Amino acid sequence: MSQTMTIPRIQIKFQSAVWTAVVLRQKAINIKVREELGHLLLVDAKDCPEMFLLASLFQHAMYTHDIIYFAREDDSSCDLLVFNGAITPIHQKDLKNLKTARKHTQPETYTIPLLESHDESIWKTWQPWKYDEQLRVMANKDLAIINASQLGYELLIHQCAYLASSYSGHSHFDHYSTKKSIELIIRNMKRNY
Asked: How many Cβ atoms sit within 10 Å of the Cβ of residue 154?
């Protein structure tokens, strides 16, 4: 039987749209997000369990179309929103409403299964070209956004699970991002030598 985690999930209503979001504090899950030099977005997980949690959250978002919101604790990091823009079209004004709504909405609890291993069979059918430009990454010092397609989520899930089960310390997603995106780097800090 696989492990599970209970997460807070809120429902948000904007005009005629109803969205669900998973809101997590970065400090509570040992994941830190920061933008550097105006062209890098770093997503740092403390170690392998946190990297598997990140993969599990991306899998949850891929299947449920929830918005994943990693709330920052201090000014040294930035908030991160991860969503599929084709299914959940979020505009800049909606982001402010989302931040406000999370403070005034009572979350419900939701249980997600946690990934515990990486499926190596994915590499037998891996075609890097199909993941080209499947991520759109934007960031500033306060807010980062990853707009991922279904294939983009699949890429994030497998890469995070791989980073958790291998001794690779980090993965660059520059080739998988749109040309206007800043570079996304996900790191397993314990194994990033």
From this structure: 18
Sign of CA dihedral 93, 95, 99, 101: positive
**Average pLDDT taken over every residue of the chain:** 90
Q: Which stretches in the chain have pLDDT values below 50? A: 1
Cα–Cα distance measured from residue 75 to residue 121, given in angstroms and rounded to the nearest whole number? 41
CA Rg, the chain, in Å?
16
Say what angle helices 150-165 and 48-64 make with each other, to 10 degrees. Answer: 160
160: CB partners within 8 A, 6+ apart = 45, 51, 52, 54, 55, 58, 186
Q: How far apart are CA 31 and CA 132, in angstroms?
A: 26
Q: List all residues 6 or more positions away from 93 whose beta carbon is below 8 Å from its beta carbon.
A: none
Measured CA to CA in angstroms, residue 17 lies from 14, 57, 145, 155 at distances of 5, 23, 20, 28
* pLDDT, tens only, 63-114: 999 999 999 989 999 999 999 999 988 877 777 777 777 777 888 999 999 9
Whole-angstrom distance, CA of residue 137 vs CA of residue 174:
10
Q: Which amino acid type is present at position 38?
A: G
